[in-house]
């Protein structure tokens, strides 16, 4: 798995071709990829929000209570896995429209590898600085979009023009998913699950 992380980040063309050639049984092993890699941002943000904290307008650092941060870290981790799974299923579901030969497992694996830059970038949560985190989020999201447009045609073995349309449809689904998750977060906070800050 570590070689695939390196490959998808620095040799995406070769890695996507390898993924496209994998059998269903080989792809099944990579369902663990987001389960393991998704722990990095959840644990990093837990540590950063409870131990380091963030500063607003030069005041003393603001931190979350360990209990509140633990609940949020678990929800964050589960939300990542749910989003990758749903996007992967929708990649498979849309495959008939774009005449791609795929499976649900292949769709989830494709979504997992596409999310690699975002999952790795989550490590910045260890030291929460808003401007730095925002900059890294923009860079990692841009790289993930690049991987999506690069990966769909190669992993699904289709012409680039059809792959571009397919990837654009997937990108639209991802935007809807992000908006839905933000809305769900606001609803949960309104229902009493908002963060609890330490004095």
Tell me about this structure:
- The model has no long low-confidence stretch (mean pLDDT 92).
- The chain is mostly helical and 199 residues long.
- The chain is built from ten helices and no strands.
- The protein is elongated, with a radius of gyration of 18 Å.
- It has one domain.
- 29% of the residues are buried.
Q: What is the fold's blueprint, element by element?
A:
Elements lengths: L1 H9 L1 H10 L2 H6 L2 H6 L1 H14 L13 H29 L9 H11 L1 H6 L8 H26 L4 H34 L6
Helix pairs in contact: 1-2, 2-9, 5-6, 6-7, 6-10, 7-9, 9-10
Supply the number of structural domains: 1
Query: Hey, roughly how much beta strand do the residues contain?
Result: under 5%
Mean pLDDT: 92
Low-confidence stretches: none
Number of helices: 10
In helices, the fraction of residues equals over 70%
C-alpha Rg (nearest Å): 18 Å
